[in-house]
């Protein structure tokens, strides 16, 4: 039953972002054999060409590949492979899996990019293979992912982890509603976009805010203190609801957050009685691509276990009939 599997040597991860596409090819142990970053595009045919070119450059044939996961920003139905909405790529109600699968002879999986980043951190990052983890992505917007009891939680409509739309009583008082076509209520407070807006008002960039915060700039400290409190409140509520072992913070904003990690931990400790480990992302911008690879490898492991289980059952039935 496993004779054909020996030729399936490689896993492919493709992380499509708003500005770049990162392609990783690994062996069955997860060792990276090929890595390439190219400019992003919403042209599906061009994406397929980029993937094929990468395989050719890596000297890997289609029949040698176990599978490929493509991570996509936006609302993604991972079962059907349909992108419900991706503002960054200009896709809406598009069956990406069907399109890409027609051009490749190996299995193709489609997942939300933040979910992939969470899987990457769980596998090779600061999640340390935990079965209970929350991942918060602070980039231009705010995203998230939940791993509970070892499995990714995607929700009934594949929308679990949309932390950017978390609302509090102040938002209700202001009459702010949630709208897919606008930034979410939490995004307006702690996203890279929100920090950029606030930083411009005092003549700084978002990255400079953290530098000036460390220097004692009172205007920068006021903005970052508010950021710390809002993020800590969200983390505390997530910890109270989900009881994760780890909370991992990733995305572009996290690259500047080392200086405020201790205050966040202190706030969270005051706001929840449940212990959790709060860490910054270890894999950074490569987490999504590694998560894509992990999705392939873990899927193949599950298939192998199922095959072995079926084989054992058939063998047992055969022996019982023989008796």
For this entry, give a set of tags.
323 residues; Nucleotidyltransferase, domain 5; five-stranded mixed beta sheet
Tell me what the structure shows:
The structure is a single chain. The chain has helices at residues 44-57, 96-101, 113-124, 169-173, 187-190, 192-200, 206-215, 218-242, 261-271, 287-322, and strands spanning 10-16, 20-27, 32-39, 65-72, 75-77, 82-86, 91-95, 108-112, 133-138, 142-148, 151-153, 246-250, 277-280. It is α/β, with parallel strands linked by helices. The chain has 2 domains: 3-113 and 287-312, Nucleotidyltransferase, domain 5 (2-Layer Sandwich); 126-281, ATPase, nucleotide binding domain (Nucleotidyltransferase, domain 5, 2-Layer Sandwich), CATH 3.30.420.40. Strand 12 (246-250), helix 9 and strand 13 (277-280) form a beta-alpha-beta unit. The model is unreliable at 1-5 and 303-314 (pLDDT under 50).
- Find the count of extended strands (DSSP E, 2+ residues): 13
> Which word captures the global form?
globular
CATH homologous superfamily descriptor of the largest domain:
ATPase, nucleotide binding domain
Number of helices: 10
CATH architecture of the largest domain: 2-Layer Sandwich
How is the biggest beta sheet arranged? 5 strands, mixed
Q: Which percent range describes the beta-strand content?
A: 15-25%
| Count of discrete structural domains | 2
Q: Strand order within the widest sheet?
A: 3-2-1-4-8
Query: Mean pLDDT score, rounded?
Result: 90
Spell out the helices and strands N to C.
EEEHEEEEHEHEEEHHHHHEHEH
- The SS-based structural class is alpha/beta
Uncertain runs are: 1-5, 303-314
- Helix content bin: 40-55%
Q: Which CATH class of the largest domain applies here?
A: Alpha Beta
CATH fold-level assignment of the largest domain = Nucleotidyltransferase, domain 5
Biased composition (Basic and acidic residues): 309-323
Pfam families: ROK
Family: Belongs to the ROK (NagC/XylR) family.
InterPro entries: ATPase_NBD, ROK
